[in-house]
Amino acid sequence: MIILRDIELRRGKKLLLHHANVTIQPGQKLALIGANGCGKSSLLFLLLGELGADAGDIEGLQTQRLAHMAQEIHATSLPAAEYVWRGDEQLAALHDRIADLEASGEFEQAAKVHSQLEDIDGYSAERRALRLLQGLGFAEDAGQRLVSEFSGGWRIRLNLARALMTPSDILLLDEPTNHLDLDATLWLQQWLQQYPGTLLMISHDRDFIDASCERILHIEQQQLHPYKGNYSDFERMRAERMANQQASFEKQQRRIAHIDEFVSRFRYKATKAKQAQSRLKELQRMQKLEPAHVDSPFDFTFPPPEKSSDPLLKLDKASLGYGDKAILSGVDLCLRPGSRYGLLGRNGAGKSTLLKTLIGELPLLQGELTCGQYLTIGYFDQQQLEALDLDASAFLHLQRLSPDARDQDILDFLGSFNFRGDTATAAISPFSGGEKARLALALVVWQKPNLLVLDEPTNHLDLDMRHAMEIALHAYEGALILVTHDRHLLRNTAEELLLVHDGGVEEYAEDLEGYERWILTSYRSPDRQQAASSDSSRREKRQQSASLRDKLRPLRRQLASTEREMEKVDANLRELQEQLGDEALYSSAEKDALADLLRREGRLKARCTELEDVWLQQQQQLDELSD
């Protein structure tokens, strides 16, 4: 076991840990969580021996083999596969020894080393390295490419593969899903479930934590707080504790009111058959767990768009790609105010091609792209971080966008993203990746877009910021199209799923859990190529899905009509209840008017109840037909 006793740890003048204690049992899988800057990465460096504790002791590491995911790759001309398998230092040493012996003609000695290599299964190393690369989303020929040919995000994936290749008793991972898409995240999740050693992982992906970890280690107020169970268990336990703290009561009530407003607005909009009931359950769960985030420093909203068009943007029979090469063909997509799409698809299927076409970076090869008169796109991807001016402050970034805005309005807005005081007005060059991501997102929000196009917006964001983004997106009135490996965010903000696959874009008839099962089944197959060759089976499945959509379409239209009427009745009821709030109505002179309003209120409430019953019956028909 590993014992941290009375640890004190500083970075510069900042005290990160003070008399911190924790015991980690062999084989445990722990997620290390906490606000940005609380010391998570520093704790990993401490365990790796790259930082020394200012006080306290660590026991139990001396005999343990550690593997970790480096955040940088030094210049190397090695092929990618060899770079990965050289993570196994013993294996690499034996290979180098054999090469030296054979070069000097000492073949008898080389034969003995070959035997040692066989004892550690060294001859399968290349195959195992290629399997890791494939699981993490690399192309089939990537193993032969030089490391220097890969971009920054792909080099981080190479480091992750190298860490997984390294034989270890303890595996330390720092935000391993940051540069992964959803498919690679699911593969890594499955790999970690089978890892026999001790895992300590920094992650802000709650679904990934839930599936991979059995313990939570929370850094809070310079202490290490262990919790049994996964992140959902931690959130529930912390919610119970925070709900009992009276000092947080008022903020808690404001947050819960915000959630209640979202529930009221979206309760009858989960029209996708297999997601409807689970969405309602998730909303109820959110209300119960909101107190766990009551002390979050983030509390921002997307302002309503100033103007809008219907539709905002439309693709008709479009072919998308680069130069003369079409990546996607026959694409039909209509984005209207309130549309909420999540994009699914394997790496390289064309998700980025679709997004870049929507925002105007790529011209159409064929077909038609129609933009509404008042279309305003807010686009976020990781390149936005690189476009930030490191010498400018967060305040100056916003002021450049809106020179006429009041200084206090800008500062108040930045405060909702936890940029306060000097952090808002000083140069952003010292900002962490998470702080830069927050600022880039703030710039998008500030411009009041009516179409949000978000490509992996949660990279580098901690759990509280992700929660705040989720709440803000719930109340967002514009259209949303989202690519993310964060399944929790995808499940709770997208109402419809689109699958980018086999050169096309189609509505995905299953729910997100169905997609997970499909991806994980393909990874479990002993021969991925065999799975990839089953085109006829997939065609049959698409035909079945198309037939199902034809049957579901009229039911969905009926359901949509019911939802529109419910919204209308609900709006009338709210307006009438506002009138009933007028104290003057309760004078004797207004008794007839009051009686009339009360009768109308009764009729509207009865109609609400009738429509709820109709909605539930229609939804049940959809569910039964979908099953």
From TrEMBL:
InterPro entries: AAA+_ATPase (IPR003593), ABC_tran_Xtn (IPR032781), ABC_transporter-like_ATP-bd (IPR003439), ABC_transporter-like_CS (IPR017871), ABCF (IPR050611), P-loop_NTPase (IPR027417)
Region of interest called Disordered, as start-end residue ranges on this chain: 529-566
Source taxon at top rank: Bacteria
Sequence ranges assigned to domain ABC transporter in this UniProt record: 2-246, 313-527
One Pfam family named in its UniProt record: ABC_tran
UniProt keyword annotations, A-Z: ATP-binding, Nucleotide-binding, Repeat
UniProt keyword Transmembrane present: no
GO molecular function (one): ATP binding
Signal peptide residues on this chain, from the entry's feature table: none
PANTHER family, A to Z: ATP-BINDING CASSETTE SUB-FAMILY F MEMBER 1, ATP-BINDING TRANSPORT PROTEIN-RELATED
Protein name, UniProt field: ATP-binding cassette domain-containing protein
Taxonomic source organism: Candidatus Marimicrobium litorale
